[in-house]
Write a structure and sequence with these properties.
globular, two-stranded antiparallel sheet, 2 domains, 5 strands, Arc Repressor Mutant, subunit A, Fic-like fold
């Protein structure tokens, strides 16, 4: 694999929808920094919630699960991993913490990537941690009938060290160009990283950890407070579709980065919107939990489900949310729409003066 030239690929990405999302994320970044400076005392809660959600979601994408209670205890370091899945979850927790606390001192280099991968597996006792793949691997998919087929053949094992060196060097060189926006370079690098697929296992989780690292180093720290991994997990089918579209003809150097760049910018736009919304609710003085739920519904134009309310208030129990909804319904402040699993609620604006 020859070294890519990310700067040369940027003009093809300057499409109206991508430019529009770039502009929005740049604007959100300015607002974000003001929030961080003015509301730092309210952000500790968001930080802890995001750690739990990020660790859970990134592992869930790869089919690694444990119970809600166990995931919280593992992330808060209040228990010892019981099995292989929990060992890998604990490893992700530690690498995530390393990136959160030390991103300024973690340059993008092959050696750094290997160290982070080593720490991802430090609880499992596996020998694969911190080493490149020893045999060729493939990216496989399963159809509705359960039949597996090869979607993409990554770089062969013998070419992997040089391939990782090439994409790291290309990214670092492009970053020195003042006309190269990191928000375009980061997903281009991550797409190439996934196409190289340098490890026997852990490539997906490493790609998400590296995404956070590069975003933080470029000043985009929203992932500390809103789980980018959770947004990806919630749109997993779109994520894989974007990867597939952008990896076509990759080996020939004729792939189109735009689908994956567009997808990742959409994730960042959503993360910044959620950040603004949650900070505004959390920073409202002396609001009780029921009052916060009330303000969220009132501030939502259109419908909102109980699950969406709980997503915005992960520190509030389902019992409290249900009790508050019943109370607001009884007072006529909200309207219940449909029923069953699709029940939603909307603010009763007819009663407003």
């Amino acid at each position: 694999m020859k070294k890519p030239n990310y700067v040369e690929g940027i003009p093809a990405l300057l499409q109206p929808d991508i430019v529009s999302m770039l502009t929005r994320v740049h604007e959100y970044k300015g607002e974000q920094m003001l929030f961080v400076e003015a509301k730092s005392d309210t952000l500790t809660q968001l930080l802890e919630i995001a750690k739990i959600q990020s660790t859970e979601a990134s592992n869930k994408i790869e089919g690694i699960y444990t119970s809600d209670d166990r995931i919280k205890k593992i992330v808060l370091d209040k228990t010892i991993p019981r099995n292989r899945s929990e060992q890998e979850i604990a490893g992700y927790r530690d690498v995530l913490a390393t990136i959160h606390e030390n991103y300024d001192y973690i340059p993008l280099k092959p050696g750094t990537i290997l160290q982070l991968h080593r720490d991802l597996y430090k609880y499992s006792g596996s020998s694969i941690g911190g080493s490149y793949k020893t045999s060729d691997n493939v990216i496989a998919e399963e159809d509705a009938q359960g039949n597996q087929f090869v979607r993409f053949e990554p770089v062969p094992a013998w070419e992997t060290p040089e391939a990782v060196e090439n994409i790291c060097a290309a990214y670092n060189e492009a970053l020195q160009n003042p006309d190269a926006d990191p928000l375009l370079l980061i997903p281009m690098f991550i797409l190439d990283f996934l196409c190289v697929h340098p490890f026997n296992d852990g490539n997906g989780r490493m790609s998400r950890l590296l995404t956070l690292l590069l975003l933080y180093r470029s000043g985009y720290i929203v992932g500390k407070f809103i789980s980018i991994e959770k947004i990806i997990e919630q749109s997993k089918s779109t994520y894989y579709e974007a990867l597939q579209n952008s990896s076509a003809n990759w080996h020939e150097g004729a792939n189109d980065y735009a689908p994956f760049v567009q997808y990742m910018l959409g994730v960042l736009v959503k993360a910044h919107r959620e950040f603004s919304s949650r900070v505004q609710v959390l920073s409202a003085k002396n609001l009780s939990k029921p009052e916060r739920i009330r303000e969220i519904i009132k501030g939502t134009l259109g419908r909102i489900t109980k699950a969406e309310i709980m997503e915005q208030c992960p520190d509030i129990s389902q019992v409290t949310v249900q009790r508050t909804l019943a109370d607001l319904l009884a007072k006529g402040e909200i309207i219940k729409i449909s029923g069953g699993r699709y029940t939603s609620y909307t603010w009763n604006r007819e009663n407003e003066e």
